[in-house]
């Protein structure tokens, strides 16, 4: 009986305290404040979501199909981007403020890709893509090649080296050095002929033989995806031969003209006044280029342009700063 009485007293006390708390004006005010804060937070949440939704279009771009241009020939496709509103909101709701740096994007691929087009030369990457590629044609210049490779390595830059087959056969150690440096290797014919005037059979031999040498020297690690005609000379049949061997034909949009042995100042000025998004910069292993390379890399990066291989430049992936 005594225990039951204690339980009744305890329950009555708790009930009384609870009633006092609920009826307490301060408690009542606190509950109102909580409700108001919750309502305000919900309103702010909706506002932020709506703001992202309303602003997203200014940050979105449609995909662009690969196409054949009357001047630039092959123009690769480029992904579009669309704002993922839900994902962006989930990041921004922590601060409750809109911040374009926290936008999350989804890439939208084009409908027409590079491989859907008829074979045609490629002079540059997509003009909206903030990239530059160094095309290094190698048929001589051994004495400058290692300096260039050292500069590229120091700056963590990868280039695309187009090797003459005859040179590759005679300089296997240098070929391995290029390959081990993570650079891309392409085909520059076997004996550096004028491909425009070469017979059909001779053209095929030039390309096939060079591919075979490059594969042999690199222990089958490298299968060239790109062909650079010597002196930029070709005919339509040349492009088709390269395509039949799985290679696209690469030209250039900026020329160092380094074979004329310009001073480093002249060479860097020549490139930097013409460089553009998507540029393919033609160079050779020369003293002028070896001395200019560090400055070129520094100044091109300063323009917010990424220096990448030809394959990377021609990918459809959009770069979002």
Short description:
The chain has 321 residues and is of the alpha/beta class.
Contiguous low-pLDDT stretches (5 residues minimum) are 26-40
Strand content: 5-15%
Structural class: alpha/beta
In one word, what is the shape? globular
Helix content: 40-55%
What order do the SSEs take from the amino end to the carboxyl end, as H and E? HHEEEHEEHEHHEHEHEEHEHEH
- CATH architecture group name of the largest domain: Alpha-Beta Barrel
CATH-derived topology of the largest domain = TIM Barrel
User: Using DSSP, what is the number of strands?
Assistant: 12
| Name of the CATH first level of the largest domain | Alpha Beta
Detailed description of the structure:
It is a single chain. The protein has 321 residues and is α/β, with parallel strands linked by helices. It contains 11 helices and 12 strands. It folds into 2 domains: 118 residues, no CATH class; 190 residues, TIM Barrel (Alpha-Beta Barrel). β5, α4 and β6 form a beta-alpha-beta unit. α4 packs parallel to α10, α7 packs parallel to α8 and α9 runs parallel beside α10. The longest helix is centred in the first third of the chain and has 31 residues. The radius of gyration is 32 Å and the shape is globular. The N and C termini lie far apart (79 Å).
């Amino acid at each position: 009986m005594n225990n039951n009485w204690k339980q009744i007293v305890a329950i009555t006390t708790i009930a009384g305290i609870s009633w006092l708390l609920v009826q307490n004006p301060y408690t009542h005010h606190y509950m109102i404040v909580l409700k108001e804060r919750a309502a305000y937070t919900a309103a702010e949440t909706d506002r932020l979501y709506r703001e992202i939704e309303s602003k997203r279009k200014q940050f979105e771009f449609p995909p662009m199909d690969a196409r054949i241009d009357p001047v630039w020939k092959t123009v690769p496709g480029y992904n579009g981007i669309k704002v993922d509103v839900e994902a962006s909101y989930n990041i921004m709701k922590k601060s409750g403020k809109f911040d374009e740096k926290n936008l999350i994007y989804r890439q939208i691929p084009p409908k027409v890709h590079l491989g859907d087009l008829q074979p045609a030369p490629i002079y540059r990457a997509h003009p909206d893509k903030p990239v530059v590629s160094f095309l290094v044609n190698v048929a001589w210049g051994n004495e400058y090649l290692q300096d260039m490779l050292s500069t590229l390595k120091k700056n963590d830059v990868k280039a695309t080296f187009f090797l003459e087959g005859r040179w590759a056969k005679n300089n296997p150690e240098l070929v391995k050095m290029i390959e081990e440096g993570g650079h891309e290797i392409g085909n520059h014919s076997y004996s550096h002929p004028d491909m425009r005037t070469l017979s059909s059979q001779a053209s095929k031999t030039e390309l096939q033989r060079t591919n075979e040498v490059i594969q042999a020297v690199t222990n089958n690690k490298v299968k060239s995806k790109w062909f650079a005609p010597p002196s930029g000379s070709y005919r339509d049949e040349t492009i088709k031969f390269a395509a039949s061997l799985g290679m696209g034909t690469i030209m250039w949009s900026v020329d160092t003209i380094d074979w004329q042995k310009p001073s480093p100042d002249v060479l860097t000025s020549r490139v930097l006044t013409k460089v553009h998004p998507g540029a393919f910069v033609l160079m050779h292993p020369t003293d002028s280029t070896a001395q200019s390379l560090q400055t070129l890399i520094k100044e091109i990066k300063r323009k917010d342009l990424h220096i990448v291989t030809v394959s990377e430049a021609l990918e459809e992936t959009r770069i979002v700063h």
